[in-house]
Design goal:
Oligomer: single chain
InterPro entries: Caspase-like_dom_sf, Caspase_his_AS, Pept_C14, Pept_C14_caspase, Pept_C14_p10, Pept_C14_p20, Pept_C14A
Domain Caspase family p10: 351-446
Biased composition (Polar residues): 289-298
Helix content: 25-40%
Structural class: alpha/beta
Biased composition (Low complexity): 60-69
Region (Disordered): 47-70, 259-331
Strand order of the largest sheet: 2-1-3-7-11-14
Length: 448
């Protein structure tokens, strides 16, 4: 059993790769060779033919302390349901719909960073195992070849994505999908050409070593320049991570509702891929509450972030903001208020957030720029809502943008944190954000 668990954690969850004993997976060259072997199996039709039951039954025994093997098995069974038998809707080839008649659906990459025990600046992300399982089966049901990796340092995250862009045969595929589950934050960088000192906002995703990779660089790896095989095809990114430390307090509405009575509804502890946790949310399969310390994906002010150079993952260059992102955002807000009170009409520094997207790309974030992303012991609000929609029969007859609007509705209407003991984290809301530069509709028509 121990050997099996070691094999899973090494990054062979979605594929079985032979003769890896002679490869040094801690070196850049050895890790690259391992990735090429895995991706090459998709071309031979060997990918994704493992026994899912065996894979996830082994994984459940090493999941976080917030879940047991039985809890995990019941949760997985709840999400892997029989697909609704809805008739395929013919698509007019002349309509503004992406061509999904290729031989393969395409490659879907899942990176789940849950174990941050080797990094003192971040806590673990219990509950992310459920998101991983749900995403894996949702992508597989849609016909994707799934490449799954867990607990990667920053440089390995870059190597996995670079290999996915260059080693897979995208020319015979409909599209590409990528889901990254990790801690996240934001930073600002000054534009060298801007004499006014305007600062550009960047989203960051962290590896388990605490190294950060900018979201815009990940998207750029799959642009037409770097991945010509995807030219004219949709590229879909789903990111479960914080984008700052702000909290959505929601909008109060005067409505009449029954008086709340403690003890009527069971509570499920919730966390966030951000600076704190709260509890509450909609009902999902029951799981025992966790008693571990709260998780954080926003590091303390004195911690200097280290960005991974995505052009050369073998050398990690130091590049980070001069100020803590959370403090800078709060400073900007106070400056606006102070200047208005003093009679000023504008501020001297205005952070900007250019959209890190390209043609035929869609990026869906769990939360707006600068805000906290919520997660609980049975999965993240955003990911579980996404998989609920992708598993429905609507996915084969409705455009992806409409489906993602329903995901936003599920998160906005059905989730709210509950933590009366901590008013700052109590009754908070969230809504995902879709940034799309798709030029046509995406409809996952059924494969023969």
């Amino acid at each position: 059993m121990a050997a099996n668990m070691e094999e899973l954690v090494s990054g062979t969850q979605a594929l079985t790769v032979k003769d890896e004993s002679d490869l040094d997976l801690d070196s850049v060259e050895g890790f690259r060779k391992s990735l090429k072997k895995k991706i090459s199996q998709f071309a031979c039709g060997l990918g994704n033919k493992e026994d899912d039951e065996n894979r996830y039954s082994v994984r459940s025994s090493q999941s976080s302390s917030s879940s047991s093997s039985r809890d995990f098995a019941e949760n997985r069974t709840a999400f892997v349901t029989a697909e609704l038998k809805t008739p395929a809707v013919p698509v007019d080839p002349k309509a503004d719909v992406y061509d999904f008649t290729c031989e393969k659906r395409g490659l879907a990459v899942i990176i789940n960073n849950e174990d941050f025990s080797q990094c003192q600046d971040f806590d673990d992300r219990p509950g992310s195992t459920y998101d991983e399982s749900s995403l894996y089966h949702s992508f597989q049901r849609l016909g994707f070849n799934v490449l799954l990796h867990r607990d990667l340092p920053g440089w390995k995250m870059v190597e996995v994505l670079k290999a996915a862009a260059s080693s897979y045969d995208h020319r015979n595929a409909d599209c590409f999908a990528c889901a990254i589950l990790s801690h996240g934050d934001q930073t600002w960088t000054e534009r060298e050409w801007d004499r006014l000192g305007t600062k550009t906002r960047l989203d960051l995703l962290f590896g388990v070593d605490g190294r950060a990779v900018a979201t815009k660089f990940i998207v750029e790896l799959f642009s037409d320049n770097y991945c010509p095989g995807l030219e004219g095809k949709p590229r879909l990114f789903f990111l479960q991570a914080c984008r700052g430390s702000k909290l959505d307090h929601g909008q109060e509405l005067p409505v009449i509702r029954p008086r709340y009575t403690p003890g009527i509804r069971p509570r499920v502890r919730e966390m966030g891929d951000g600076p704190d946790r709260a509890s509450g949310g909609i009902d999902l399969p029951d799981i025992s509450e966790i008693n571990s310390p709260t998780s954080s994906s926003v590091d303390p002010p004195e911690f200097q972030r280290k960005l991974v150079d995505y052009t050369d993952a073998s050398s990690d260059g130091d590049a980070g903001p001069s100020e803590d992102s959370g403090q800078l955002g709060n400073t900007a807000e106070r400056t606006v208020a102070d200047d208005v009170d003093a009679g000023w009409g504008f501020t001297r520094e205005v952070p900007v957030s250019p959209t890190p997207l390209y043609k035929d790309c869609l990026v869906m974030y769990a939360t707006p720029p600068g805000y906290f992303a919520w997660r609980r012991s049975t999965g993240a609000w955003f990911v579980q809502s996404l998989c609920t929609v992708l598993n429905s029969g609507m996915v084969h007859r409705m455009s992806l943008v409409n489906l993602l609007s329903r995901v936003c509705g599920l998160v906005a209407h059905n989730f709210q944190s509950q933590n009366p003991s901590r008013p700052s984290m109590h009754e908070k809301k969230a809504v995902p954000v879709v940034e799309s530069m798709l030029v046509k509709d995406v409809i996952f028509t059924r494969k023969q």
